[in-house]
Amino acid sequence: MMSRRIRSFVVAIALCLGTGAGAWAQDLTALARVDAARSETRDHGAGFDLTLGLTQAVPFRVRLWDDPRRVVVDFREVDFTGLSAETMQGADAVAGVTMGRLGAGWSRMVVELTEPVLLVDAIYTGADGSAPVALNLSFTATSAPDFAARAATPGAGDPIWGRPAVREVDAPILRQDGTRPLRVVLDPGHGGIDPGAQNDGINEADLMLLFARELRDTLRRGGFEVFLTRESDDFVPLETRVAFAHDAKADLFLSLHADALAEGRATGATVYVLSDQASDAAAQKLAERHDRDNLLLGVDLHDHDDVVAGILMDLTRRETEPRTMALAQTLVDHMGRHIGPLYKKPLQQAGFSVLKAPDIPSVLIELGFLSSPGDLDNLQNDEWRARAAQSIADAIADWSQSDAAQGALIRQ
Asked: pLDDT tens digits for 142-191?
């Protein structure tokens, strides 16, 4: 007879992957909330245990992803509010934990590993009402080859994200000529499972969503059409952000961020443009931190271009790159005049995946450093954010006029 522990595990997996019970799972709308006081990771023999206190049992799925090694737990659906990453780093094999919303109706917890492990037990306790509900996952140490052999291909069979459907190729985005409102896509960095930089309880994702909404309103008052890649605290993959800009037929794309440094006293805003060669080591590390979104989803964009596509994109970028550089310089000029001192090198280059649309002028703005007390105060100050938004709007207005005039000369 199947044991109660194994039976609980099988039912939990079936709710996510099966047909009968799985169909019922798709209709769930209520959130389970996490109980931080009953949640932890702890060493256990040659492995570790992960416990999540919950208000109710929900369908879940556990997978292993390699390179780097991670345990990925998808839920339908858990509100992780109140649970800190530090609370869940109580085991030696746990290097870090990230959690949050992944998409409508889904949540994800990603446990970064210092050593290979395998799942050996999974059980809900209290699901019958005898005690508070808790999900208990038990892992044991294994060899690197065994882990790699059992690890899933990131994205394969994923209940949330699959390969995009084949569709007709859209008409190319025509260069703006000043005869219609400029179409701007704002990209509030991070979100959901990825809060971005954090300091004193403040998340980069929350601040950037707030600023993006304020900037959107400022731009719309100036006559621009504006769209946001996310309207709430949701996780949006990097490739989806770029695809969103294409679908919106954007004339320009602005990705908004506010980083934090573990050491140093960096302050001020910085504007980045795409380049295979970073301006310096700090810019390279920043791009790697922002592209960490891909690891949370299990996608790596860096080496996916085939030869033919690469040639076509290079040809397109020959026209777009000088337009992007002009936009970045105009932003630096206006922001420097209106929001105070910028970073010591305010215009930089790095290989941000989110800037890889070859036909849309795209820049990434670091509004400041959450690790800087002064920058953090500015980012939480309504008046400072209003000045920053207006300076960006003025820069876009100036750039759009100049860009349209240069486009007219090229057409002649």
From this structure: 999 999 998 876 655 554 544 444 445 455 567 888 899 999 999 999 99
Euclidean distance between CA atoms 106 and 236, whole angstroms = 12
**Is pLDDT of 242 > 60?**
yes
CB 256 within 8 A of CB 352: no
Hey, what are 33's tokens?
A: 């909330």
Rounded to 5, what percent of the chain is helix, strand, coil?
Answer: 35, 25, 40
Residue with tokens 């950037």, as numbered in its chain = 208
Give the tokens for residue 67. 């390179």
CA 200 and chain centroid, separation:
20
CA 207 to chain centroid, in Å, comes to 14
What's 82's domain CATH number?
2.60.40.3500
Domain membership flag for residue 167: no
- Structural domain includes residue 337: yes
261 — alpha (psi -120 to 50), left (phi > 0) or beta?
A: beta
Looking at the fold, whether 145 and 194 belong to one and the same domain comes out as no
Checking phi first, is residue 82 left (phi over 0); if not, alpha (psi -120 to 50) or beta? left
d(CA 292, CA 299): 10
Distance CA(122)–CA(111), nearest Å, equals 16
DSSP character at residue 45 = T
Look at residues 349, 376, 174, 411 and name the one whose alpha carbon lies nearest to residue 265.
376
Query: For residue 206, which amino acid is it?
Result: D
Tell me how far CA of residue 382 lies from CA of 58, 196, 255, in angstroms. 40, 21, 20
Vertex 190 angle, CA 187 and 193, to 5°: 140
Query: Looking at 104-221, which runs of residues are DSSP E strands?
Result: 106-113, 117-125, 134-141, 183-188, 198-199, 202-203
Here the tokens at position 132 are 């508070």
Structure tokens at 299: 């996608």
Whether 145 and 224 map to the same domain: the answer is: no
Pairing of strands 106-113, 94-103: antiparallel
Q: Which domain covers residue 85, as residue numbers?
A: 4-150
Model confidence over 47-73: pLDDT tens digits? 999 999 999 888 888 889 998 899 999
From the CB of residue 106, how many other CB atoms can be counted at a distance below 10 Å?
20
